[in-house]
Amino acid sequence: MAQALQQAQKAAEAGETPVGAIIVLRGRQVIGRAHNQVELLKDPTAHAEMIAITQAAAAVGDWRLTETVLYVTKEPCPMCAGAIVLARIPKVVFGASDPQHAGVLDAREVIGGVLAAECRQLLQDFFQLVRREKQSESPDAIG
Fold it and tell me: Which residues make Cβ contacts (< 8 Å) with residue 115, sequence separation at least 6?
């Protein structure tokens, strides 16, 4: 999860929602590593999980990722959950819960709350900064 948090920090530094993901093969080898790139790529599907899944599939030469574990700093959204199911990833470990999308991976082995405070804090800090920046850019802002 620490490596996923490093990816999330890269996303935050780039102005992206700070979510990072790592995919590990057979508990040993990282075969996918990504952070959100929605703004950079102007692509609503460029979530950390989606990019990491694509990398992992390329690394193993198969779309079936049956011997992997996905570590992600925020509970996956429905799009990413669908990709996780389709890729046959059997285990997901996430940090911060997402009340909007809770339980979308009930059919998988899912472990939540790993480094949750750190993952949550990164997300909260990022969105507080975004809100402050938007407020200071607002033509209604007094200043």
Answer: 1, 2, 5, 73, 95
Among 13, 16, 39, 49, the active-site one is: 49
C-alpha distance from residue 126 to each of 15, 25, 79, 107, 116 (Å): 8, 30, 22, 31, 15
Residue in 63, 73, 57, 59 with CA at minimum distance from that of residue 21: 73
- The verdict on whether 16 is a catalytic residue reads no
Which amino acid type is present at position 20? G
Q: Please state, in angstroms and rounded to a whole number, the distance separating the CA atoms of residues 96 and 4.
A: 12
Q: Mean pLDDT per segment of 10 residues, for the chain of length 143 residues?
A: 97 97 96 98 98 98 97 94 95 90 69 87 92 80 52
Residue 100: per-residue pLDDT: 82
